[in-house]
Amino acid sequence: MEKLKPCPFCGGNAIFHTKSNNSPHYSAGFSFEVECEDCDMKLPERYEINLSLIEDGKINVLNDKRLEAIKKWNHRCGAN
Ligand SMILES: [Zn+2]
User: Fold this and answer.
1) In the beta sheet, which residues pair with residue 48?
2) Half-sphere exposure in the Cβ direction for 67 (13 Å, CA)
3) Is residue 59 included in any domain, yes or no?
4) Is 3 domain-assigned?
5) How far is the CA of 35 from the centre of ligand 1 (A)?
């Protein structure tokens, strides 16, 4: 997976910040934002990831917006 580039404004470390736990009964879901640790600049949208445990013991990814969030963040970096 691509990595988050440093913050376009201050060069700080960009992070996935979990905002809430949206877990329905048989899966785990989180909504998160991408933001800068140092200056608190963040993407305006919230993104989601949902996971479940399947019968063979693996984690099944039902919905994963991490890449979309990374692309959005990195595009913003490139525009500056
Ligand atoms: Zn910053």
Assistant:
1) 31
2) 5
3) yes
4) no
5) 8
